[in-house]
Amino acid sequence: MRSPHELMIALGIDCGTQGLKTVALDHDSGEILASASRSYGLIGGLAPGHLEQDPETWWTALEATVREVLAALGSRRREVAAIGVSGQQHGFVPLDAEQRVIRPAKLWCDTSTAAQCEEIRAALGGRDAVIGLVGNDMLPGFTAPKILWLKQNEPENYRRLARVALPHDYLNLRLTGNLRMEYGDASGTALLDVRRRVWSPDVWAVIDDSLPEKLPVVGSSREACGLLRGELGHEWELGEVVVSAGGGDNMMAAIGTGNVGPGCVTASLGTSGTIFACAENPVVDPRGEIAAFCDSNDRWLPLLCTMNVTVATELFRKMFGWDHARLEREILSVPAGADGLVFLPYLQGERTPSLPNGCGVLHGMNTANTTPAHVARAVMEGVTLGMAYGLRRMEELGVKPETIRLTGGGSNSAVWRRICADIFGYPVVTLKSSEGGALGAAIQALATAAGEPAADLSSRLVRVDEEARVDPRGDFDYGRVLERQNHLRSALFMHPNLEIGNCAGRGTTHAGVVHDARFCLRGHPGAGGSRHGTGRHAFRSDHDEPGNGHHPCPTTVGNDLDLMDDDR
To answer: Catalytic: which of 185, 249, 295, 566?
Structure first.
């Protein structure tokens, strides 16, 4: 452990879905001295709902970016004292007895495991029982159903399975030779009892009685993973380097956005959309819509995740052939509410609410609002309203934001910041650094090397950009639009006797099909649920078990989305 008064640099590595970034952070100044990134895609040609990557792709990008950053540091590379890794949550990296990758990783956005989720729920006594055991519902994005999927669909590979790793665990293994998990990332497996921070024997027994032998040791994020392997230190011309515990991308983004105490809330506008807060005690949602995660600072991180944010905005931007400046101009040319056009953004299914087989919908079209500009505005509002659905639920569970800190590629857009403030109903600010997970990983690494609390370092080094602050105007009632969106979701995807017409197969919808519920619904279109109010907007939320899979089919979009400088 080094003295905090020594000259010290940490490398922060963020392994996302679309690429990997490495930054070098100075302990004293908080300046990012160098950065480098590499893009990569998903494995193509897979069936709908299956989203996978080769972990070797991550390692290749890590090596390339680390070398580039170290070259930029020049003689200061010898000051590198620590490395921290942030990784996309929930991904399943199966390893054999020699700790070699058995098959490609199934990612957080893979929705192919809905059947396994239902099987685990049923074996444990239903959703309420699952939440009672681990604090979270069993959702397709989580790791546990992916393990059962492997057992049922690839038995030969499952017989080779010796160790279960998450993406950031795998990179830590390559860096140190040690395999362990920390509470934050482990809480996203649906195998960890988040209240007690131990593996749940009831859950693992449903999958395989021998699963505990395959799970790594789980512990505090304050404990280092180990030292950088000697051969890597020699190749990179470094001295002794500590590799911190690291964590999931949301946990690292919390540290990297200064979200280390009650009252602070972060919203990330990335490939997916996340909103999360720091909590001193577990925040468990009995409906299972808000994830009850641990953070990577020995607290808790209540979090909502929607699966379609810049996925949707970039898809339509490219469809119209616009650059980002043109996108902003077109959206500004349309009034709030897009003249009645409403978008359900479920292009890759959805996680909050849980609709793994959902699809995208445009509703309310007429001759006046069916223009590219209106569609663009409806899409940006639609994905933000999807996040607001979860934010209202977090408020009901006691999470009370003062200001929301925006990060992710979408936060670079001034018009999007305005839409966020007006829809969320809270002031929003951005940060001086948009590195998010990479910055958080570097801060945690510095804290480990110097023996300082990560929360203290985060509070000192993370800086808010007050010039980008936007206060809500309240001159348009987005609560009514949110209510319409909730009605539409219920009518299309949650009604037990409803079929959706104008589709390729009976009872299915497909990505790219545009629906107007007045013409294509058969059956009673009424939406169940009850009305709730938060003191800001009244809205409708549904208490029915979501994601029953009766109607829509899995959908995916292309892998070449050029996101707005985004992480995840």
So the answer is: 249
